[in-house]
Amino acid sequence: MSRQKIILWALVLSCLASFTVLLSMGSSTYREMPPIPAQVVSETGTLLFTEQQIQDGQMAWRSMGGHQLGSIWGHGSYVAPDWSADWLHRELMAWLSIRADQQYGLGYDQLSIDQQAGLQALLKRDIRTNRYDAKTGTLTVSDTRLAAIQQVQQHYVALFGDAPEMQPLRKQYAMKEGTLPDLTRRQNLTSFIFWSAWATATDRPDQSGVSYTNNWPHEPLVDNTPTSSITVWSILSVVVLIFGVAALAWYHSTLKHDPLPTPAKEDPIFSHQPTPSQKAVGKYFLTAIGLFMLQIVLGGITAHYAVEGQQFYGIPLSEILPYSLTRTWHTQLAVFWIATLWLATGLYIAPALSGGREPKWQKLGVNLLWVALLIVVLGSMAGEWFAVQQVLDIDISYWFGHQGHEYIDLGRFWQMLLMVGLLIWLALVTAAIRPALKQENDHKPVIWLLYISVVAIGLFYGAGLMMGKHTNLAMAEYWRWWVVHLWVEGFFETFATAVIALMFVRLGLIRARSANSAVLFATLIFLSGGIIGTAHHWYFTGTPTSVLAWGSIFSALEVVPLALIGFEAYEQYRLRNASSWMSNYKWAIMFFVATAFWNMFGAGMLGFLINPPISLYYVQGLNTTAAHGHGAFMGVYGMLGIGLMLFCLMGLSKGRGWNHNLLKWAFWSMNIGLMAMLVMSLLPVGIIQFFAAIDSGYWFARSPEVLQSELVRQFVWLRVPGDILFAIGGMFIAMFLFGMVKASWSAKRAKKLATA
User: Fold this and answer.
1) Beta-carbon-side half-sphere exposure of residue 290 (alpha carbons within 13 Å)
2) Cβ pair 251, 569 in contact under 8 A
3) Which of 295, 321, 491, 617 is 20 to 30 A from 574, comparing alpha carbons?
4) For the chain, what is the mean pLDDT?
5) Domains of the chain (ranges plus CATH)?
6) pTM above 0.85, yes or no
7) What is the DSSP string of 713-730?
8) CA 627 – CA 679 distance, rounded (Å)
């Protein structure tokens, strides 16, 4: 059996085994997730909350922006608190204060150390004991806890309304006035947040000392500290990483690389005229860069809210564009513009692989898909504005407004419409690439791998539809990360690897046999860790402790290929001088090189900083996560999308209006700006919070005492130079595209005049 077939079979078996494990984890999560009680009552029979109120509270949370205003279980935005950690700490302090007054007639702070220790022991027993009765669906709380819950509930009802005494705190949290104007919604919201906090510190029925969220967040008052599983599997993940890097380095050293072929004297792409559907793809690139520029503007506004809270340089912008909305649009547009570039690449490359042949009506399909894309983008953004402004009914908000889950924010109707669009894209690519799939040639394995990734991209977004209105948050997080991790980080990555290889093969710069082996092996290594590695997002979201083992080991394997990605960068970099005409593709290749660098730094180093359970236990939802997110999402997928766009544009434009200087300035401005943003602001703030989370508890790391401290505010302001430089790079890309469009119009006008 040939080496290629061995790798192919290993890839198939690896994927089957990995998805079996992934589905098994989902089944275990469903059985062991934190239960939603039918009712929450006190020992004396006082009714606090019902199941319906908890579910309605979750819907209220989703309608106001959900993950985009603070976080739950560590997932969400970074300026407002993690509500589950914040509620837990406030409830604990209220409990201690109430019991101190009852027993000693003094405030808790006035007690002796021994008296405080005694109350803390009683507190721990009260909070950690699981009093949920599965037979009746009743959760019983002590009368002391009842009084504490009611105190915290009053605080939250005032905070999410427009109570004047809470205005300074709302400003620090970047909350708009009257976040939830309706009193009933605010009261229901408190029931949902209480439930999310209850799950973090209450022991599982069968595991003493381990909560439903594996003792997250760090809260010393009730011994919410790392479990033995968190520590052990973190150490083993480092061992696996070291072994994996060593094994891959050894494997790489044994390879015999085929010499590069002699390039053609002229650019092979210039000899082919774009098909009608390929020409229609041009508008996708213009749309994507337009969305990119809008995302940059919204990112600047969102970042500035961390300083002024409700204003933008004195302008009361939060009344119209509150933080929860600008962050929603900022994160959603990142997915939209990058996905648009990649989808456009698929529509462009498919006819090229089939020798310039395309089915009838292909151009019409491409144009209709573009219109559908605009409808989804604009419609979902409008719906989110109405939802955050609390204009919509709670059910209408779910369908047409805001679903509240980060990266799946758009209303369910728009989500379904996007899914239909992806299926149309799959059909268009399938129709165009079908002749290439039937051809016998040297690079057929890579073409098939490309097509399989296209099918996966078209279908796997549907995982986001698996959660409904009242899905338990543990299961909602399970399916959400199928989209964010598998759809974006998994199959788009496979798609991009295959596309780049095919582009270099088509240009005659690498041998097809070499491309086949390299792409299949790279995909095998990436997906072997990447599929099960999705579990590192689920450590503390109400999943079983077994998820810690799977996630820690396989997320470490995700980093293994990134550790040696410099070899790939060098191989691509040296191709830029393979022939004189390769100068046309210099900056496209440079963006691929940048992708390799950010894969190593943003996805690899910053990713592993937060991936081991013991690390993520303290830093989940801190600015270390934002540093990894920006470095990986923009650095890897954004830079890669721009590189793919430039390759396609060279084929469309034939070099007309190609401005190397603008691309040079765009490249360096964006990469230096992104790096400055990370090392001068996001990473330092995250490290400051890291220390705070270890020393005082997670709630403190997310509190105004830390985030609004003078030191942190200085680092937030230090983000401005990087933001500006990055925005300038985006402007250069936009100017480059404008120059190409202008040159194309001039060429068409000259042709008409010549034939007139």
Assistant:
1) 10
2) no
3) 491
4) 90
5) 46-225 (no CATH), 227-256+453-658 (1.20.210.10)
6) yes
7) HHHHHTHHHHHHHHHHHH
8) 8
